[in-house]
């Protein structure tokens, strides 16, 4: 991690565009890509929590959580030929080649799911995949938000196979003829570069079809990404506490900073507990433990920060806006699971006769 910290310190003020791609060798050396194949999520998160204390750390962390929990998860499914993944040897070989490049810090892979007007529902996607008589696949898509997309070597595209009524995942290389790319950047965590991609009737080989039905994976992939976001948030709060602890000492100040430290510690402990479950059981779904308090602690920490006199988190720590932009309580998965959880609340205190 020392080499990565030194690398991130070396970029001039204001630079963000080249940070993630240029730091890939140091990221790989730090072991932050190991969870892409045989590494554990606990180890990944124990390192990820430190990134907000580094320059550019939150933006780099966003790139890592998208690479590991989203694109990386799909590659692992194909390579392991797990249920729902392609069983073609060509698909497995291609996925293994891509994974090897990612683990060794040689490449970047982006995933395109969201598109204009989809409102977070797969059923609203207009991207389509058509199986041709030759076995090749004709893709038409317009993806509006691809994290890590600006420098990606290739993309995973979620599109609807209208014949089977399934939302498959398809791989397309960056240099594929007819693929159009439009780069854009956010005002926060900009090191995780983004782009829009589109293509009309692009014909790809059959072994570029990786996953038959993304709808069976989408919820767990989203929750895995949010788990890493929660870890990044914990690191961000601890960085702020570390910075503010250099100020004047008073009982009131210790109480405020102590509460922030404790809240982040409680959440981080829960994240590691869930990470352990993911490591021990490949069939474990985060949905079993979700919600687990991330949204409540996020809101409480922001309330506490906003109560500190002469402290403006929006100007002093602008990358914190990331966590508001992807607030977990706004996701359809959160709403569904909270409703399900509420049924258990009603049972509290109801003792059954023995």
UniProtKB/TrEMBL annotation:
Q: Which GO terms describe its molecular function?
A: flavin adenine dinucleotide binding; oxidoreductase activity, acting on the CH-CH group of donors
Give the Gene3D superfamilies listed for this entry.
Acyl-CoA dehydrogenase/oxidase, N-terminal domain, Butyryl-CoA Dehydrogenase, subunit A, domain 2
Q: Which InterPro entries match?
A: Acyl-CoA_Oxase/DH_mid-dom_sf, AcylCoA_DH/ox_N_sf, AcylCoA_DH/oxidase_NM_dom_sf
Q: What name appears for this protein in its UniProt entry?
A: Acyl-CoA dehydrogenase
